[in-house]
Design brief:
heterodimer; A: 261 residues; alpha/beta; Rossmann fold; 6-stranded mixed beta sheet; B: 236 residues; MetI-like fold; 9 helices; 0% strand; binds adenosine-5'-diphosphate; binds magnesium ion
Chain lengths: 261, 236
C-alpha cells in the first residue's frame, strides 16, 4: 500500500543571477498517515524548498508529490487553493499578520472562505483553547512572546482542519524551554487529531524528542531515512559525521543566543 | 508694507493685523480645499497604481513584465516632469474637463497628475517592505490573489502607507502655492500677487505662517495616526 505522502524523484533548480542553482536533486520520501516525520539537514540543504513544494508555494521542475493519492504538483490553481486547506504550515518566523488580532489571525482561513460568523467564533474558541490562547484572543501578535506567537501560528494552521501539518523550523527561533512546550503541543495535536506532521528542523534534539521516523537531507538529496532509533543507533557514516557537526552547531547556537541576551 | 522701506519689526507687527488677515483668511480655505481634494484623488489613484506595480512585479502576485515594464516607464515619465511643466501640460486637459483652464479645479487636475506617480512609487515601496513570509503564510492558508493583496498585503503596510501619504500631502501643499501663480487662488496666489509683485511683505509673511502651520499640522496628524496604529498593533 502506498504511504500517505509519497514524494518521488523530486527536482527543483532555482534560476539565479549567477546561474542555475540545483536545490532538490531527486528526493524520494514516503510518510505514513498519522506519524511525525522528521527531516533534518544543515541550513541551505533544501529543507524549506522541499516543504514549500508540498503545499505548492514552489513548483518543482520534475517529480511527483502524492498526498493521499493526489499528485499536488499536477493540480490547477483553483484545486491547489482547495488542497492547501488540508496542508497546514507553521514557520520559523511565525509570519503572523500584525494588522490582525490573535482572533483574526486564527480565523483567517475561515474568513477567506466566507464562513458564517457563528461557526468562525465557535471554531476559533475551540482551537484557541487547544493551543492555550483563550486569554489572548483580543491581543495583537506584536505584544506576544515567541512561544505565544508560535501558538497563534499553529492555531491558524489548525483551524482549517488539515490532514498534514508542515512545521518548517517552528521551534528554531525559540528558547529551549519554549521549544519543549511547542514540541509537546505538536505531539498532542498529532495524537488527538491524528494529523500527520512533517517536522523540518536542524535541531537533532527536536527530532529525537518528537519523531517516529526521519530522513536526513544533504545537498538536496535524502542520504538516509528510517526509524529514528535505528538511525541514531547505527547511523550511515555520513549521517554520523553530520550528527556530530549538527550537535556542535546546535550547542554553538545556544551559546550565541545566550550570549546575545 | 515692504521691507525695503519699513523696519522688520513693523512689518512683522503688520503681518498679524486684521486688515491683512481679511485677505489672507479666505485664501487659506482655497489652499485647504485644493490640498484635500487633490490628496483624495491622489490617494485613490496612487494606491491603485501602486497595486498594479506590485501585482505585476517579479516579487509580486504574478510577474507580468509586459505590464510592469511599460507601466513603470509611464510613471517615471510623469515623475520626471517638473511640477510647473505639469501644470502647463494640464491646461488643455483641464479645459476639456472643466471648460476653463484657469482656477482652482483645473489646477487640482495638474496637482493630482503630478503627485499620483510619486505616491504610486511610495505605495510600491511600502508594500515591498512587508515581509514575504507573511505573503507565504497567507498563501499557505489558501488565499486567492485578491485575498493576499486586500486582506494581508495592504493592511500590513498601513503605518508605512500613512507615512508616505503624509509626505506626499506636504508635497501637494507646496504645489498648491505654485499653482497659485496659474490662477488657482489660495495662499500661493496671495504670496505672488502681493509679496512678489507689489512688495507687500507683511502679506507674504502671513502666507508663510499659514504654510508652516498647515505643513506642521499635516505632519503631526500623519505621525500621530501612524504611531497610533503601530501602538495598537504592539509594534512600538
Ligand atoms: N526563491 C529562491 N530563489 C533562489 N534561490 C533560492 C530560493 N529559495 C531558496 N533558494 C536557495 O536554495 C538553497 C536551499 O534553501 P532552503 O530550501 O531554504 O534551505 P534550508 O531550509 O534547508 O535552509 C539555498 O541555497 C537558498 O539560497
Ligand atoms: Mg529553511
Amino acid at each position: 500500500m502506498a504511504d500517505y505522502i509519497e514524494i518521488h524523484d523530486l527536482n527543483k533548480t532555482f534560476q539565479t543571477r549567477t546561474g542555475p542553482l540545483p536545490v532538490l536533486n531527486g528526493i524520494d520520501l514516503s510518510i505514513k498517515k498519522g506519524e511525525i516525520f522528521g527531516i533534518i539537514g544543515f541550513s541551505g540543504a533544501g529543507k524549506s524548498t522541499l516543504a514549500r513544494c508540498v503545499n505548492g508555494l514552489e513548483i518543482p521542475d520534475a517529480g511527483s508529490i502524492e498526498v493521499n493519492g493526489r499528485d499536488v504538483t499536477k493540480l490547477s490553481k483553483q484545486e491547489m487553493l482547495e488542497e492547501r486547506r488540508h496542508i497546514g504550515m507553521v514557520f520559523q518566523n511565525f509570519n503572523l499578520f500584525e494588522a490582525k488580532t490573535v482572533y483574526e489571525n486564527i480565523a483567517y482561513s475561515l474568513r477567506i472562505r466566507h464562513e458564517k460568523k457563528s461557526i468562525v467564533d465557535e471554531k476559533v474558541k475551540e482551537v484557541a483553547e487547544l493551543v492555550g490562547l483563550t486569554e489572548k484572543l483580543d491581543a495583537y501578535p506584536g505584544g506576544l512572546s515567541g512561544g505565544q506567537k508560535q501558538r497563534v501560528g499553529i492555531a491558524r494552521a489548525l483551524i482549517g482542519e488539515p490532514d498534514v501539518l508542515i512545521s518548517d523550523e517552528a521551534t528554531s527561533a525559540l528558547d529551549p524551554q519554549t521549544t519543549l512546550q511547542i514540541l509537546d503541543l505538536l505531539r498532542s495535536i498529532n495524537k488527538e487529531k491524528g494529523i500527520t506532521i512533517l517536522m523540518i528542523t536542524h535541531e537533532l534534539d527536536a527530532i529525537k524528542y518528537s519523531c517516529d521516523r526521519m530522513a536526513v537531507l544533504e545537498g538536496g538529496k535524502i542520504i538516509e531515512q528510517g526509524k529514528v532509533v535505528d538511525i541514531f543507533h547505527n547511523p550511515h557514516s555520513r549521517t554520523g559525521e553530520l550528527f556530530t557537526k549538527v550537535f556542535f552547531q546546535f550547542q554553538n547556537d545556544e551559546f550565541q543566543s545566550g550570549a546575545g541576551i | 508694507m515692504s521691507l525695503e522701506n519699513t523696519p522688520f519689526l513693523e512689518v512683522i507687527k503688520s503681518s498679524f493685523s486684521a486688515a491683512i488677515w481679511k485677505e489672507v483668511g479666505p485664501a487659506v480655505w482655497d489652499t485647504v480645499y485644493m490640498t484635500v481634494v487633490s490628496s483624495l484623488i491622489m490617494l485613490v489613484i496612487g494606491l491603485a497604481f501602486g497595486i498594479v506595480l506590485i501585482w505585476t512585479d517579479k516579487g509580486g502576485i504574478r510577474a507580468t513584465p509586459v505590464i510592469n515594464g511599460p507601466f513603470g516607464w509611464f510613471i517615471n515619465i510623469l515623475r520626471s516632469l517638473p511640477q510647473m511643466i505639469m501644470i502647463i501640460i494640464m491646461i488643455p486637459v483641464a479645459r476639456s474637463i472643466f471648460g476653463q483652464s484657469y482656477g482652482t479645479n483645473p489646477c487640482i487636475v495638474a496637482i493630482a497628475a503630478s503627485c499620483i506617480p510619486m505616491y504610486a512609487r511610495m505605495v510600491e515601496s511600502s508594500l515591498m517592505e512587508v515581509e514575504k513570509g507573511k505573503i507565504d503564510a497567507a498563501r499557505s492558508l489558501g488565499s486567492t490573489d485578491f485575498d493576499i493583496v486586500f486582506r494581508v498585503w495592504i493592511p500590513e503596510a498601513i503605518p508605512s502607507l500613512v507615512r508616505g501619504f503624509t509626505v506626499t500631502v506636504i508635497g501637494i501643499i507646496s504645489m498648491t502655492a505654485l499653482a497659485g501663480m496659474f490662477g488657482a487662488g489660495g495662499i500661493g496666489d496671495i504670496a505672488v500677487r502681493y509679496g512678489y509683485q507689489r512688495f507687500q511683505h507683511d502679506k507674504l509673511l502671513a502666507c508663510i505662517y499659514v504654510l508652516i502651520v498647515i505643513v506642521q499640522l499635516t505632519q503631526s496628524a500623519g505621525n500621530l495616526l501612524s504611531d497610533h496604529i503601530r501602538k495598537k498593533r504592539g509594534l512600538m
